[in-house]
Every structure is written in C-alpha cells, then in structure tokens.
Amino acid sequence: GVEVGPQPQGVARADVLDKMRKIVKHGLDFVQLFNEGKEFPPCTIEVFKIMEKVDYPRNKNGEIIAIIHPKLQDQDWQPLKDGDPLFLTLDGEVIPYQGNCTVYPTFINEAAYYEKKQAFVKTEKIKLTAKHLRLPLS
C-alpha cells in the first residue's frame, strides 16, 4: 500500500493525488527495469523509523488539557529537540519536548488519531543500505 498525505479525511487534493501517481509510477518503473535485467548499484537512503506514539496531555478524567503548540503544527518530519514547544495548555502554558535525542514527529494533530489517543508519532532518522541488486541469471 501507499499512503500519501497528510490531508483531511474525505478531502481529495490535486497535489497529494499527483504525489501518489508519481510514487506508484516510480515503483512500476523499478519493477519493469528489474525484470528487464537492469543492474542496481548499492545505495543508502535516509528513512524515518517509528519510535512511539505520543498522546495529548490529559487530566485525571482522561480529558485533553493541551493542544499542539502552533510552532509544531504542520511541521511533520522536521527535527524536534529537547526544550522545543510541544503542547499549549488552555491556560497558555507551553509544555516543551523533553527528550535526550532529536526526533522527527509525524501525523501531528491528525483528526483520525484523536480517538486513538495519539497527538503525533515520534520517529528517528536512520540510514538503510541496499546491496547490489540484479535479477539472477537463469
């Protein structure tokens, strides 16, 4: 499957549809070239690995008591460092990120995840290396 976003539920966006078409086309081009015997050299790519889901701050009754800080909103895949603003309480208090490493939040404030108690997902940036790839000779 291919998930391209973010976008609100029930909304069709031309830019997101275009991105989806491009990634599917690249995938199909790769399969065709591989099947034709093209050799692919080793390569390294940066990816984001999920670390954990982060919930909104809640009171003892389980009610949300803070929202995503404006400086974090719409900053998916951007670095979040210790001390950066994370949440904003309804009283205007800033709750900073407290962590021992830089993380890369995603799915920030997605409506579909409220019921799952998920304000965002923390990811870490890692490098993956692919070995030389070629269709084996038959």
Features:
three-stranded antiparallel β-sheet; N-terminal domain of TfIIb; ACY2 Aspartoacylase; 2 domains; elongated; AspA/AstE_fam; hydrolase activity, acting on carbon-nitrogen (but not peptide) bonds, in linear amides; alpha+beta; Aste_AspA_hybrid_dom; 138 residues; single chain
Concise synopsis of the structure shown:
By secondary structure, the chain is an alpha+beta fold.
- SS summary, helix count: 1
The CATH class of the largest domain is identified as Mainly Beta
Shape: elongated
What is the gyration radius calculated from CA atoms?
A: 20 Å
Count of separate structural domains: 2
Number of beta-strand segments: 6
State the low-pLDDT regions, or none: none
CATH architecture of the largest domain: Single Sheet
Mean pLDDT across every amino acid position: 91
Helix content: 10-25%
Largest sheet: 3 strands, antiparallel
The largest beta-sheet arranges its strands as: 1-6-5
CATH topology of the largest domain, by name, is N-terminal domain of TfIIb
Distance between the termini: 30 Å
Question: Which class best fits the helix and strand makeup?
Answer: alpha+beta
Beta-strand percentage?
Answer: 25-35%
H/E series: HEEEEEE
